[in-house]
Design goal:
This protein is mainly α and 229 residues long. It has one domain. 69% of the residues lie in helices and 4% in strands. The protein has a two-stranded antiparallel ribbon with strand order 1-2. It starts with 8 loop residues before the first strand and ends in an 11-residue tail after the last helix.
Length: 229
């Protein structure tokens, strides 16, 4: 039993290694890319639409709705990043039902990369919404003494994102592997279904936390117009 897909090496040349994490990460990205091309090549604006287009519209509508509820008034601007983030983590969980598949989110290197993406994108959107001067000054509020604490907060939440996702995905895979050894018939099926549910929940939590961090950096929630009761 292995703890991480990083330990599964398919090809190696010196220090260059092609492990399961890299292979399955690219397979998921390829699958998402090809799937989006196939679904969107014949989009219809009439009432007669394909099942795949209906599924796509349901997914996009729900993601946009969740982004808007977080407090981002222009959700479609953030849809590309947050939607892709959710679909990647969710696809990693859903594909675990395939024999031989190793979810790349079970590797700390993958979850760290995803967390670093959030770490980079948060100031990008913050600077875009506020300007670089206003955004950087937010680190010194309410007083300059808070500067090191705010910087530590940025780093710690990035680390927390990576470790949380890695821990939940890896623990699910380990429990399933143990049950396959002990009771190879009934419990693995139940745990597989539970793992799928856990993976979807983790994808939702990860993308929502990213949206919350972006909203906090952009300070857009303070500028939204309250709806009249």
């Amino acid at each position: 039993m292995h703890l991480s897909p990083d330990e599964i090496i398919y090809w190696q040349l010196g220090w260059i290694k092609l492990n399961a994490t890299i292979v399955f990460t690219w397979l998921i990205m390829l699958g998402l890319g090809l799937g989006s091309l196939l679904i969107t090549r014949h989009l219809s604006t009439t009432h007669e639409r394909s099942r795949w287009q209906n599924l796509l519209e349901i997914i996009v509508t729900n993601i946009v709705s969740q982004i808007e509820e977080v407090g981002l008034p222009k959700p479609r601007y953030y849809l590309g990043f947050l939607g892709t983030l959710f679909l990647f983590v969710a696809s990693s969980a859903l594909c675990t039902i395939l024999p031989g598949f190793e979810p790349p989110t079970g590797s700390l290197s993958t979850t760290t990369a995803l967390a670093l993406c959030v770490f980079v994108v948060v100031p990008f959107f913050g600077i875009r919404e506020q300007g670089i001067k206003a955004y950087l000054s937010s680190y010194t509020k309410p007083t300059i003494i808070m500067l090191p604490f705010n910087l530590i907060s940025e780093l710690s939440r990035t680390l927390a994102l990576a470790v949380r996702l890695f821990g939940n995905m890896m623990s699910g895979a380990m429990i399933l592997a143990i049950l396959l050894t002990i009771t190879p018939f009934i419990f693995p099926i139940v745990m597989t279904l539970l793992g799928l549910l856990t993976g979807m929940v983790q994808a939702y939590i990860f993308s929502i936390l990213a949206a919350v961090y972006i909203a906090a950096a952009a300070r857009t929630t303070a500028r939204t117009t309250p709806t009249s009761s």
